[in-house]
Amino acid sequence: MTKSAETTHDLVVFGATSFVGQILTRYLLDTYGVGQSVKWAIAGRSESKLNTLKSELGNTAKDLPVILADASDEAALQAMCEQTRVIISTVGPYALYGEPLVQTCVRTGTDYCDLTGEVQWIRKMVERYEEEARSSGARIVHCCGFDSIPSDMGVWFLQNQAEQVFGEPCLDVRMRVKTAKGEFSGGTVASMMNVAKEAAADPKLRKELANPFSICPPEHRSETRQPSLKGAEFDKTFNAWLAPFVMGAINTRVVHRSNALQDARYGKEFTYDEAMMTGRGTKGRLAAYAIIGGLAAFFTASAIKPTRWLVEKFVPQPGEGPSPEAQKSGFYDLRFVGRTEDGKTIITKVTGDRDPGYGSTGKMLGEAGMCLAFDIPADQPGGFWTPASLLDGKLMERLTSKAGLTFEVVETR
Ligand SMILES: NC(=O)c1ccc[n+]([C@@H]2O[C@H](COP(=O)([O-])OP(=O)(O)OC[C@H]3O[C@@H](n4cnc5c(N)ncnc54)[C@H](OP(=O)(O)O)[C@@H]3O)[C@@H](O)[C@H]2O)c1
């Protein structure tokens, strides 16, 4: 059962005033206008901030409807969900503010997508609400930004190509960030610091975060040992040094859940990891060590009270993020290397045309919401999906035609 198309709105952007919500809102306005083929609205807790946003967006936004709701006000969330078929939420850290909205979407059969990268929260939401989502018909899709659409859709694309060219999927896939230019926003830093703080206080959570299959359904938790880069390593395929990629902690979990939700289409023994290329020679090696040292310092200092305040002083605050120029000049280029069981190899590439975390994320999230609203058949069951397992080629078409992403095969051998 899904909602009727008779709701007032097709889609509501909850958290339109957030750093990324503003980028997303402008993107939807520029791409789809107001009151035309897409009926959409903006929502948030502060009427004055929402009205300021509308006036900053200019005259074309003057008829954009506004809905008021606080993330903890269940009656207001219920009223918001009753007006729309799809909610896009950017209100994070989701582990702090996100649950009442997920619960309300599940109860009202409203489709939902967001930008969370908080594994422990996703797992909690799946455990608590998956059964109810299946019966209400609500399709919930977390991780619809830079984490984890390029990785999840990148692996999905590679496996499609491998099946076409080799007649079988690749049992092992490695994603390498070749280049990425962008900055973190206050909201993302707050989410990362919240995970570090929670993990420091809870050994069970640390174990959960270390489990590559932590968000897979229990019957799909594979025993296959997963590669996991801890230090600097030299990659012969690309002739470059590698350092751990901070988003790999969420992306790898989403890719494994996608595999599970597609009935282990990539293989029961499928292995996957992510890393960043840091260049060749001594310079590349030193850059890898610098990244490892920087990540360790950030997470250690964020985890404990005496140093957390110091980190907070130097990182962007909620609502802050890269300038419009930095968003425009940002980009990313990800390479995927897949190998079949008998060694056939395919290399693919995914690129994005804006900074990964904001300019590109705003567009990806907007198109994930549009895909939920217009491309997914009503009889597709409710539940907690991933971008690749639910939105698949329909999302890829939107990403390439509207959101500035490319997917291509570089080489097969
Ligand atoms: N997956 C990715 O690639 C990716 C990329 C970027 C961001 N993110 C995640 O996306 C989220 C947003 O990031 P951001 O930097 O845009 O955040 P931000 O600028 O700090 O914005 C937070 C938003 O939450 C709203 N909010 C906070 N408490 C609320 C409440 N009680 N009720 C209603 N709204 C409330 C704020 O409303 P006010 O404006 O009224 O204060 C604001 O709109 C973060 O969780 C971040 O980690 C993920």
Automatic annotation (TrEMBL):
Parts of the chain that traverse the membrane: 286-304
Occurrences of domain Saccharopine dehydrogenase NADP binding (ranges): 12-141
Gene3D superfamilies: NAD(P)-binding Rossmann-like Domain
Domain of life per record: Bacteria
UniProt keyword annotation of Transmembrane present: yes
PANTHER family to which the protein is assigned, alphabetical: SACCHAROPINE DEHYDROGENASE-LIKE OXIDOREDUCTASE
Official protein name in the record: Saccharopine dehydrogenase NADP-binding domain-containing protein
Biological source species: Marinobacter metalliresistant
